[in-house]
Design brief:
heterotrimer; A mainly alpha (about 300); B mainly alpha (about 350); C alpha/beta (about 250); B: about 350 residues; mainly alpha; MetI-like fold; about 70% helix; globular; C: about 250 residues; alpha/beta; about 35% helix; binds adenosine-5'-triphosphate; binds magnesium ion
Chain lengths: ~300, ~350, ~250
């Protein structure tokens, strides 16, 4: 290669003059930027872990995770209602939004005509970017009254406002639907064309190939999409806060107001005096959410989605 | 239809009924999901969009907040700019013009837009200019719009250099080392955290530890942090798509790595990096929880249109939450619809822009 | 020479948008024979082959004109179910493409399409198909390991077994040996010859020796057109067309 280089025209000013300090400086600046990323991550984790561990230590993990009574102002720090609300609403979201989204993805990628697929992908990309408060507001205006009626029919006076896990589940389902759709559609699209053709050539219909070849071949991507959807639903805050009712209690049924970790964090944090146990308990709860999301997402990305490079 | 005339005719395959049922089920499921979002977004734009963006034919009274005049001109530029651009794009005669003519036309259009913004800024949509009202109807989102812009600019200023710098380090300077793997884990972790966790972190640092109160600066810094993994990964991807041959040609000419980065790699990867910036701006528009915890939910009358980013203030998304959960205004349904419509329009804009930049 | 035509194309033309892949080809494909398609790269062999069992149906911009008759029925007729066509006309591809499933499931895949089957029937037919593809002895002890763990030649025979399991009347092969080493190729060739006794085989190949060894008839394609078709020995020894001559003597391609 060097022999070729000498034949090429050389620019007027000699390269070694320009080289003098630019290179080390650039290396320094870029390395600094990278270190800054590392440092800020450590700061986020460090600060939250410090306060959170203080809270965890004072309350005890058993009480924090299993106790049924969450009333920080009275010194009761039982996190079960929060954990329960979070888990159930996210699970409902997977069922109501995740599953249809996966089916819609396989239909769009495998069976629908190309323009329909493109339109669907565009729409879902937009829907995934719509702010969560907008969904929260729509749910507040349209879903909560509807749920109040349904709950009234099912439970009579036991379901006064319609707020609760049912609406939160539907809302979160709608919110994670587009994300799950996009991720699983890209998993389906990655299945090699060879396999589809092999299935067709055996006299299988496109539908059969989609269900029995493409789907199994892409299962890692689909599970990954669902897990990321679950993590997102579990961490969603303001939209859920608008429709879940904010009652710090274990719900009797799907139409009873209850709460989630994230919701309770915003609701209580503004009132908790810094440095008190009430405030540290919230950081401990945040730590639970943080550890859960980080483990779930990092596991999903590394193992199921093959690392994002 | 007649009975099968030959052995290849349709309708004689076993399991056909089941297959049809599956098709109908999958179609209905897909169509239903799509239709749900189309209806939701379209009705939102229809109901709230009209209120938010229709011009007033009479001059809008100034609310007296300092800086409002500047906001009017800025908004006028955006408003007439989008209008002019749309007309220009949709005008069918455009394709027949030569490139030079098109350029002239564009310049004329820009001049026209500036003039319109100056001349008609009193007739802009009321909703986008007025101060919010707490107890009575007819409030607008002027300051929230300005706060949103401030937060987007500040967080972009933070996130772009750090994100691109880190991406450059990862692509051109990193050697396999414990630091490198720690950095990867850090990026994955940052990307995985729910936004409320960022909010708590910002609250703990800025409000509790530094006792700085609520400020847009704090909110923007937190959002900048939240956007870092996105900016790093998209930048790294677009840097990775720069043809290796180009970079090698530059290195072979005796350029250093840094020179190659600035003269070859960055210019080629620039569109992709910009798309990352645009996407993260979209997230600043959309986020609410971290901002509620760091920038507050209200606007001050005196500092409504100030430049100072250390003022506290709600963005559009936060305002949408606020009017429904805390605020007392009697027309909250209309205000919410209009705010939501503006938000969705902004998001649609950033999405399309990012998509275009990525395509290029 | 075979008596009846199993497949017949009449003025078959395939376009990719403005580009012509196969131009006006009329060809008889007799029953229980091996027909080889030869020709330089890009002359439309694959396109022709894939037109025979409607493999290009879903593809955008692919247009087919003319007729392809399977036992006298036009497979492009308005009321024809392409899935039924492909069930009778199977295909083996250039790159071995086993499903990421077990060997057993690979072969059973086609058998399960019509609905659930009895386990014993399934076992028997899987064994039979693997036997016909000459793979049974090598894999009978590890039927439930992944099909993608086999060697390239074994994978290709697995794909053949998979195609044979549904008992097609015609098998189309697009350069089935191009990814295989010489020994695997030899095994595949003897299998193809064997198959030619019981069913109709159309094979695309770049290896002229292979065409000579396995086929009874050979067709030469050039720039999308069928230039010449004749009994293999006839075509190789006394080509009638100048282009065929030039190709066979290595003049181009
Ligand atoms: N999907 C497609 N879109 C557009 N043109 C195509 C497509 N597939 C094939 N062609 C064109 O049609 C012509 C015939 O292609 P075909 O693949 O049938 O050739 P071939 O004889 O099989 O070549 P090879 O021996 O290299 O496999 C070629 O010119 C090719 O470029
Ligand atoms: Mg070919």
């Amino acid at each position: 290669m060097s022999a070729e280089v000498s034949l090429l025209p050389v620019s007027s000013d000699p390269p070694h003059r320009r080289r003098s300090f630019g290179e080390p400086l650039a290396r320094l600046v870029f390395t600094f930027a990278a270190l800054l990323v590392l440092l800020s991550t450590l700061m986020v984790l460090g600060f939250l872990a410090q306060r959170g561990l203080i809270g965890l230590w004072a309350i005890g993990p058993a009480e924090l995770l299993l106790g049924a009574d969450w009333r920080p102002e009275l010194g009761r720090f039982g996190g079960r209602p929060l954990l329960f609300g979070t888990a159930v609403s996210a699970a409902l979201a997977l069922l109501l939004g995740g599953a249809p989204a996966v089916l819609a993805a396989i239909y769009s990628v495998e069976l629908a005509p190309a323009p329909a697929r493109r339109a669907m992908e565009r729409l879902m990309a937009l829907a995934a970017a719509v702010p969560s408060v907008v969904y929260g507001w729509l749910a507040l205006v349209h879903l909560v009254p509807a749920a109040a009626q349904v709950g009234g029919v099912l439970y009579g006076d036991g379901a006064p406002g319609g707020e609760g896990l049912a609406v939160s589940g539907v809302l979160l389902g709608l919110m994670i639907g587009p994300t799950v759709f996009l991720l699983s559609a890209s998993a389906f699209a990655k299945v090699p064309k060879d396999l589809r053709e092999a299935s067709l050539a055996l006299g299988a219909s496109p539908l059969h190939g989609a269900l029995y070849v493409v789907f199994p071949a892409a299962w890692r991507g689909v599970v990954g999409a669902l897990l990321l959807g679950f993590a997102r639903a579990a961490g969603e805050t303001m939209a859920v806060q608008m429709v879940i009712g904010g009652a710090r209690q274990l719900p009797l049924h799907l139409f009873t107001p209850t709460t989630t970790i994230a919701t309770q964090l915003v609701a209580d944090m503004q009132n908790a005096r810094p440095g008190t146990l009430a405030s540290d308990a919230l950081y401990a709860m945040a730590l639970v959410l943080l550890v859960f999301s980080a483990l779930l997402v990092v596991f999903t990305r590394r193992l199921l989605l093959g690392g994002q490079k | 239809m007649k009975a099968a005339a030959h052995p290849l005719a349709r309708g004689q395959r076993p399991g056909l009924g089941q297959e049809r049922a599956w098709h109908i089920f999958l179609w209905a499921n897909t169509f239903g999901l799509g239709a749900l979002f189309v209806v939701a977004i379209a009705s939102l734009l229809w109901k709230g969009g009209a209120k938010a963006t229709f011009l007033t034919w009479y001059p809008t009274p100034l609310s007296g907040a300092p800086g409002e005049q500047g906001m009017r001109v800025l908004l006028g530029l955006c408003f007439y700019g989008v209008l002019g651009w749309g007309v220009f794009r949709l005008w069918p005669g455009r394709a027949r013009l030569s490139a030079g003519r098109q350029r002239h036309l564009q310049l004329a259009l820009i001049a026209l837009v500036v003039m319109a913004a100056l001349a008609f800024n009193d007739h802009l949509p009321r909703f986008l200019l007025l101060m919010p009202k707490e107890g009575s109807a007819g409030g607008g989102v002027g300051p929230m719009l300005w706060n949103t812009v401030t937060a987007a600019v500040v967080s972009g200023l933070v996130t772009l250099p750090i994100g691109v710098g880190a991406a450059l380090y990862l692509r051109y300077y990193a050697r396999p080392s414990p630091i490198l793997s720690a950095l990867r884990v850090a990026l994955d972790t940052l990307a995985s955290l729910p936004s409320i966790v960022y909010g708590l972190f910002g609250f703990l640092i800025f409000v509790v530890q530094l006792r700085a109160g609520y400020s847009i600066l704090a909110g923007a810094l937190v959002l900048g942090l939240l956007n870092l993994p996105l900016v790093v990964s998209v930048s790294e991807e677009s840097l990775a798509s720069v043809p290796r041959a180009l970079e090698e040609a530059s290195l072979a000419l005796g350029a250093t790595t840094a020179q190659t980065i600035f003269r070859v790699s960055l210019p080629v990867a620039w569109n992709g990096i910009l798309s990352a910036l645009v996407l993260s701006t979209g997230r600043v528009f959309a986020e609410s929880a971290p901002l509620i915890m760091t920038a507050g939910t209200t606007v001050s009358r005196v500092q409504a249109y100030a430049w100072d980013p250390s003022r506290g203030g709600a963005t559009l998304a936060v305002h949408l939450w606020y009017v429904n959960n805390v605020g007392l205004s009697p027309d909250r349904a209309e205000v919410s619809a209009a705010t939501a419509a503006v938000l969705v329009m902004l998001i649609a804009l950033t999405n399309t822009l990012a998509e275009r930049l990525r395509r290029r | 020479m075979g008596s009846v035509s199993k497949l017949r194309t009449v003025e078959l033309t395939v376009r990719y948008g403005d580009k012509i892949g196969v131009a006006d080809v009329s060809l008889e494909i007799p029953e229980r024979q091996v027909l080889a398609l030869i020709g330089p790269s890009g002359c439309g062999k694959s396109t022709f082959l894939r037109a025979l069992n409607r493999m290009n149906d879903g593809a955008i911009g692919v247009e087919v004109a003319g007729r392809v008759e399977l036992d006298g029925v036009d497979v492009y007729g308005g009321d024809v179910d392409p899935v039924l066509v492909r069930r009778r006309v199977g295909m083996v591809f250039q790159r071995p493409n086993p499903f990421p499933k077990s060997i057993y499931e690979n072969v059973a895949y086609g058998l399960r399409i019509g609905g659930r089957q009895k386990r014993s029937v399934l076992n028997e037919r899987v064994e039979h198909a693997l036997g016909r593809a000459g793979l049974w002895d090598e894999v009978k002890d590890r039927l439930h390991t992944s099909g993608t763990d086999l060697s390239g030649g074994q994978q290709q025979r697995l794909c053949l077994a998979r195609a044979l399991a549904v008992e097609p009347e015609v098998i189309l092969m697009d350069e089935p040996a191009s990814a295989l080493d010489p020994i695997a190729t030899e095994r595949l060739e003897s299998l193809i010859k064997e198959l030619g006794r019981s069913l109709t085989v159309v094979i695309v190949t770049h290896n002229l020796g292979q065409a000579r060894r396995v086929s009874e008839r050979t067709a030469f394609f050039y720039l999308g057109k069928l230039i010449e078709v004749a009994a293999t020995s006839e075509l190789f020894e006394h080509p009638q067309q100048r282009k065929t001559q030039a190709y066979l003597t290595g003049g181009f391609g």
